[in-house]
Each structure stands twice: as C-alpha cells, then as structure tokens.
Specification:
By secondary structure, the chain is of the alpha+beta class. Helix content is about 40%, strand content about 25%. Strands 2-3-1-4 form a 4-stranded antiparallel β-sheet. The chain is elongated. The chain starts with a helix and ends with a helix. The model has no long low-confidence stretch (mean pLDDT about 85).
C-alpha cells in the first residue's frame, strides 16, 4: 500500500511531482476545444444508437435552384448517382425575383429539395457548384429537427457515411 501514497514513484522521496508547464496546459485546453465537436457528435450518435431516438439536425434538406426542368433532372440524377442524397424532389416551375449585379431580375426556375445527411452537405454543395451552369447557384440547407422516424432511418440507410 505504500505505492498509493507516492505521488511520483520515479522521483526521490520528498521532491514531489513536477507541475505541467503553461504550454502543456494551453495545449491540453486547445486540443480539448478542437475535439469538442467530434466528441459531441460521437456521443450523440452513441446516444441515438442506444436509445433509438433521433438526434435533431442529423439530416438536412438542401434547396438547389435550376434554370429549367432538364437541368434540374440532370443535377438530381448526378446527386443520386454519387449517393449524396436519399431523395431529390423536383418542384415545378416557379417565378423568382432577385437582384443580380445591381439590377432587379425576374425569371422562372425549378427547385430541387435534396434530403441527405447533414454531414454530406459540404460535399453536396461542392459537387453541385462544380456541375451547375449558374455562376452562383442557390445551395441552401436547413437541418431537420423532427420527422417520421422510419423516414429518417431510411435516409440514414440510403446515404453512406464516407
């Protein structure tokens, strides 16, 4: 039991343990802050797996505007071929008003509603920008707070993690 009373068994008795330097403490704090989002995400996934509950924001709906129906179908198919979404809705033609280069413009557009994992939004956005004919395409996402648990599970199963 004597070893329990020793604080630093490698140092001679009476010297005590050396304190960590400020640099070491700063490094630990910085690494903790950087790792927090990853650890929180893992904890939420574990909680969800154990309890079977949905974690708000795990999935998202992305909005992508398109010039016409053919472009919308081509982009939707490309998204699906890359397995970046579980489902893409192609909404019918709608009117749009917007400012472009200081002038008020009016046009028609087709809107895609893309259902996917929130973790795929960055990859989805980059891919759509690379194939979209617009100089600045609309790519906006909103997290799904709640929904049909079976549908959300289906999204989970349909969109791979990688």
């Amino acid at each position: 039991m004597e070893w329990l009373s020793q604080r630093c068994p490698l140092l001679p008795a009476g010297q005590g343990c050396p304190r960590p330097s400020r640099g070491t403490l700063l490094l630990v704090v910085i690494l903790s802050l950087l790792m927090y989002p990853v650890l929180r995400s893992l904890a939420l996934q574990l909680h969800s797996a154990v309890t079977g509950s949905y974690v708000s924001g795990t999935h998202s709906v992305a909005f992508v505007n398109c010039l016409n129906e053919q472009i919308a179908k081509d982009i939707a198919r490309a998204i699906m071929d890359k397995k970046l979404a579980a489902y893409v809705s192609i909404l019918p033609k709608s009117s749009a008003l917007y400012f472009w280069k200081g002038e008020l413009e009016e046009s028609t557009e087709i809107l895609l509603l893309v259902k996917t994992r929130t973790s795929k939004i960055g990859e989805l956005s980059n891919y759509v920008r690379s194939i979209h004919p617009f100089e600045i395409p609309e790519i906006i996402s909103l997290p799904i707070d709640q929904g049909n648990p079976l549908y959300l599970k289906w999204i989970e199963e349909s969109v791979p993690w990688d």
